[in-house]
Amino acid sequence: MKRLLAVTLAAVSLTVGASEGLPPIQSVDIDVFDRDSVRRGAEFYVNYCQGCHSLKHIRYSRLAADYDISDEIMKSNFLLGERKMHETLQSAMKPEDSEKWFGAPAPDLSLAARARGADWIYSYLRGFYLDPSRPTGVNNLYLPNVAMPNVLGGLQGLQQPVISHEGGMEFVERLELAKPGSMTPDQFDEALTDLMNFLVYVSEPSMLQRLPLGKYVLGFMFLLTYLLYRVKKEYWKDVH
Ligand code: HEC
Prior knowledge:
Elements: H1 2-20, H2 35-48, E1 55-59, H3 60-66, H4 71-78, E2 88-89, H5 95-102, H6 112-115, H7 118-125, E3 128-130, E4 138-140, H8 153-156, E5 157-166, E6 169-180, H9 185-203, H10 207-236
Antiparallel strand pairs: 1-2, 3-4, 5-6
Helix pairs in contact: 2-9, 7-9
The chain binds heme C (HEC).
Heme C binds near residues 98, 143, 147 and 151.
């Protein structure tokens, strides 16, 4: 029965994969307690994403407090233009302008790591490839006919698709680096991992308090179980 179920499930997932024709997403190791990584990710975000995307659920002051970022660093690296500590990380670009310039609004990314998952965003940002038929010159493996330009192309380099033919259909089998960027593939993956740690933190800042609390609660439960066990032993000692 179990085997039958496994075979059925495998068949279902195969057909789903085939019908979408998208390559599997890659996974990224998330650690929101790695302070240096989240700080680097936040700076990366401000430099490369905030031009178009907002994070309306997080304030600069909260970020600074949660990750011990000094006022000087906040001023020099985060509070671009006239931005203030109590404000949220809004983009200067309005959604209407994004629609006009790129053909689609750049969505708020506050909850993106929860809605799409960090693995998906990580794969998406690594999934841009050259496609002269598109107005931006690029396409994306995970969001076909994407409106977002390849903003990280200078860092990652430009990727060329390796096309496969199967049953009269064309699909992108994998991507190959055609022109190297300013970062090596490892450096680029690290920068994206930092960025994902930041976006996962942003999607639920209270996680920083909740996760350690969970450990205490579990520890307390274990202790309680042990104590109750001892009490039970004590009670039943004379019966056995
Ligand atoms: C030049 C403007 C611009 C910049 C800079 C930019 N984006 Fe985008 N982004 C867009 C637009 C426009 C879309 C909408 C794409 C679409 O719907 O086809 C988008 C879509 C996305 C999506 C997909 C949302 C979804 O679920 O469909 C994610 C995730 C994303 N961007 C992340 C980022 C990250 C992370 C950065 C920084 C590395 C970044 N973007 C930088 C314009 C931009």
